[in-house]
Amino acid sequence: MQVFQLIEQLEYLDPNAEVHFAYSYGDYWRTQVAPTVDRVTEGAVVYSEYHRMHKLVDEEELHEDEGDTETLQRVVVLG
Protein backbone atom coordinates (compact mmCIF):
# COMPACT_ATOMS: atom_id res chain seq x y z
CA MET A 1 0.00 0.00 0.00
CA GLN A 2 1.21 3.49 -0.76
CA VAL A 3 0.50 6.63 1.25
CA PHE A 4 -2.01 7.99 -1.29
CA GLN A 5 -3.96 4.71 -1.08
CA LEU A 6 -4.03 4.90 2.73
CA ILE A 7 -5.27 8.49 2.55
CA GLU A 8 -8.02 7.45 0.12
CA GLN A 9 -9.17 4.68 2.48
CA LEU A 10 -9.13 6.95 5.53
CA GLU A 11 -11.21 9.67 3.85
CA TYR A 12 -14.38 7.60 4.30
CA LEU A 13 -13.90 6.80 7.98
CA ASP A 14 -14.85 8.59 11.17
CA PRO A 15 -12.06 11.13 11.83
CA ASN A 16 -12.54 10.63 15.60
CA ALA A 17 -12.14 6.84 15.51
CA GLU A 18 -9.09 5.27 17.19
CA VAL A 19 -6.52 3.67 14.87
CA HIS A 20 -5.26 0.13 15.55
CA PHE A 21 -3.17 -2.31 13.54
CA ALA A 22 -3.74 -6.06 13.54
CA TYR A 23 -1.40 -9.03 13.49
CA SER A 24 -1.38 -12.66 14.53
CA TYR A 25 -0.20 -13.13 18.12
CA GLY A 26 1.33 -16.47 17.17
CA ASP A 27 -0.49 -18.53 19.79
CA TYR A 28 -2.23 -21.88 19.37
CA TRP A 29 -5.60 -20.27 18.64
CA ARG A 30 -4.14 -17.90 16.01
CA THR A 31 -5.53 -14.93 17.90
CA GLN A 32 -5.57 -11.64 15.99
CA VAL A 33 -4.49 -8.81 18.30
CA ALA A 34 -4.95 -5.10 17.57
CA PRO A 35 -2.80 -2.65 19.54
CA THR A 36 -3.34 1.08 18.99
CA VAL A 37 -1.21 3.14 16.64
CA ASP A 38 0.40 5.92 18.62
CA ARG A 39 2.90 7.28 16.13
CA VAL A 40 3.54 7.67 12.42
CA THR A 41 7.16 7.97 11.36
CA GLU A 42 9.41 7.54 8.37
CA GLY A 43 11.86 4.69 8.50
CA ALA A 44 14.04 2.39 6.45
CA VAL A 45 13.54 -1.32 5.83
CA VAL A 46 15.43 -4.13 4.14
CA TYR A 47 14.15 -7.57 3.26
CA SER A 48 15.20 -10.23 5.76
CA GLU A 49 15.52 -13.79 4.46
CA TYR A 50 15.50 -15.04 8.05
CA HIS A 51 12.16 -13.36 8.86
CA ARG A 52 10.81 -13.67 5.29
CA MET A 53 9.61 -10.07 5.45
CA HIS A 54 10.97 -6.55 5.72
CA LYS A 55 12.62 -5.45 8.95
CA LEU A 56 13.32 -1.96 10.26
CA VAL A 57 16.95 -0.89 10.20
CA ASP A 58 18.83 1.97 11.79
CA GLU A 59 20.56 3.63 8.84
CA GLU A 60 23.31 5.01 11.09
CA GLU A 61 24.20 1.51 12.28
CA LEU A 62 23.92 -0.16 8.86
CA HIS A 63 27.33 -1.12 7.50
CA GLU A 64 28.01 -2.26 3.95
CA ASP A 65 29.29 -5.63 5.17
CA GLU A 66 26.02 -6.28 7.07
CA GLY A 67 23.73 -6.00 4.09
CA ASP A 68 23.15 -4.61 0.68
CA THR A 69 22.44 -0.90 1.12
CA GLU A 70 20.95 -0.84 -2.38
CA THR A 71 17.92 -2.78 -1.08
CA LEU A 72 17.25 -0.15 1.59
CA GLN A 73 13.72 1.17 1.16
CA ARG A 74 12.29 4.29 2.82
CA VAL A 75 8.79 3.74 4.16
CA VAL A 76 6.07 5.16 6.41
CA VAL A 77 5.88 3.22 9.68
CA LEU A 78 2.79 2.98 11.89
CA GLY A 79 3.70 2.09 15.44
Describe this structure in words.
- The protein is mostly beta strands and about 80 residues long.
- The protein has one domain (about 5-79).
- Helix content is about 10%, strand content about 30%.
- The protein is built from 1 helix and 5 strands, in the order αβββββ.
- The chain has one helix at about 5-10, and strands at about 25, 30-35, 40-50, 55, 75-79.
- The chain is globular.
- The protein starts with a helix and ends with a strand.
- The mean pLDDT is about 90.
Short structural summary:
This protein has about 80 residues and is mostly beta strands. The chain has one helix at about 5-10, and strands at about 25, 30-35, 40-50, 55, 75-79.
Strand content: 25-35%
Mean pLDDT: 90
Main sheet attributes: strand count, strand direction, barrel closure: 3 strands, antiparallel
Alpha-carbon Rg, integer: 16 Å
The low-confidence parts are none
Shape: globular
- Total discrete domains: 1
How helix-rich are the residues, as a percent range? 10-25%
Q: Gap between N and C termini, in Å?
A: 16 Å
The helix count comes to 1
**SS content category:** mainly beta
Number of strands: 5
Describe how the helices and strands are arranged.
Blueprint: H1 3-10, E1 23-24, E2 32-33, E3 40-48, E4 53-57, E5 73-78
Antiparallel strand pairs: 1-2, 3-4, 3-5
